[in-house]
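Before surveying the methods themselves, we first show a specimen of the format, giving the amino acid sequence and backbone structure tokens:

:::
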Amino acid sequence: MIGAPKKSASVRLIKIADKISNVGARIHSDPTTEERDDLADYAGWAEQVVAGCRGGNAWLDTKFDDMVRTARASL
């Protein structure tokens, strides 16, 4: 989301938490090709969104990075 950096600090934190949840929800133990593609696409898009939201909470930033690493490892 291009406008994310212009949002309030609390909205940026919520966006990061939302992306953590959404990436995690797309991780499946035995994904279909469609699920793998969806996860890869979503994780990439989420990284772009979160790039504009970072810096307000180091713990959330780390959790997001961990979740994306987990997602990529499951592909």
Q: What stands out?
A: The CA atoms of residues 27 and 70 lie 8 Å apart.
